[in-house]
Amino acid sequence: MNIRTILTAAAALLLAGSLIACNGQKDNAAGETDITTDTATAVQFSADSAMAYVRAQCAFGPRVPNTEAHRRCGDYIAAKFRSFGLDVTEQRATFTGWDGKRLDGRNIIAAYRPEEKERVIICAHWDSRPWADADPDSARHREPVMAANDGASGVAVMLETARKLAELKPAVGVDFICFDAEDYGAPYWGTAPEDGSDWCLGSQYWSAHPHKAGYTARYGILLDMVGGRDARFCHEGFSLQYAQDIVAKVWSAAETAGAADYFLNASGGYAVDDHKPMNEVAGIPTIDIIPYVPSAPSSFGATWHTTADTPDNIEPATLRAVGQTILQVLADETK
Ligand code: AHN
Ligand code: ZN
To answer: Considering every ligand atom, which ligand is closest to the CA of 224?
Structure first.
């Protein structure tokens, strides 16, 4: 074997290696397109455990900013992440609501392997909406939302994922960001700014002032309402606009994780959500895993911004589909 043959063989090996490592579509020897997937991780997301984290958050009451339930639940979330060995940083700032109210804002950031430079963000909002303004009973529109799905579900999936990291041992660092005051957007009786800036106050703040100087990450995945009984996840508009390759990566991981029934390869609508400032202000490509249920009264699902958004209406199988997908995404990430 001469030097040229050795080099050619080495190049062929490298090429084969990169094809195997690469998730998605590739051409087989006959030139046909195969769907290839990474191997499924053996680490199992526990839906029971995630469900317990949903109930624990809701047991404090609605986590509306400036309330005791909000303060106590924030302490609970920070303590839980710490108990799994993560490094917790809190960002406290005063936000101003659409109604001029001063809100004691609190973003909670939990870092797995903070020393690692290569990082992935998993995020969700943890606050409850003060007004159930989409409730079928208009007499209840000024009651707060329990936010089992629209708040607690995303945090629950993050907590259970964090608990499993010691076993998963991903090749990258992970930051779990719990954003405050996502759901303070003006109800129909208020005056809303045109640009949607009354929503997502915590993520707007973090995107303009990241918790560490010079902070960056490979990409982010936002979890919003990931526990609904009727949830199906489609490709959200801003996610495709800013991070199409991450959408492909996550939907492919969902297939590997056995969650293809929940992650449909179809376009959904646009959601003004925490990923918008992350893309537009922080410049981190971030997607939103958010339900798209065209048949429900709201495309976000039957309980959206209603008094029925309670733990009894959370489906553990939905939490598992999303959680197992997140574990798979992190397992697939290489150094
Ligand atoms: C709007 O459609 C304005 N916001 C969707 C984002 C949201 C609200 N997520 C949870 N609650
Ligand atoms: Zn909401």
So the answer is: 1
Which residue minimizes the CA distance to atom 3 of ligand 1? 272
Give pLDDT tens digits for 185-203. Answer: 999 999 999 999 999 999 9
Provide the residues around ligand 2 (an ion) whose CB is within 5 A. Answer: 129, 150, 183
pTM: 0.90
- Domain boundaries along the sequence of the chain: 9-332
The residue nearest atom 10 of ligand 1, judged by CA position, is 150
Question: From the CA of 27, how far away is ligand 1's center (Å)?
Answer: 40
Residue 7 Cα, ligand 2 centroid: separation in angstroms? 57
- What would the pLDDT profile of 72-127 be if each residue is shown by its tens digit? 999 999 999 999 999 999 999 999 999 999 999 999 999 999 999 999 999 999 99
**Per-residue model confidence (pLDDT) at position 38:** 83
pLDDT tens per residue, range 272-315: 999 999 999 999 999 999 999 998 889 999 999 999 999 999 99
Pair 123, 179: CB distance under 8 Å:
yes
* CATH number assigned to the domain with residue range 9-332, chosen from the 4 options 3.30.70.920, 3.30.1700.10, 3.40.630.10, 3.40.190.10: 3.40.630.10
Q: Check if the beta carbon of residue 91 is closer than 8 Å to that of residue 109.
A: yes
**Chain centre distance of CA 50:** 14
Tell whether ligand 1 has an atom less than 6 A from the beta carbon of residue 272: yes
Q: Where are the alpha helices (DSSP H) in the chain?
A: 3-21, 47-58, 68-83, 153-168, 201-208, 237-256, 275-277, 316-332
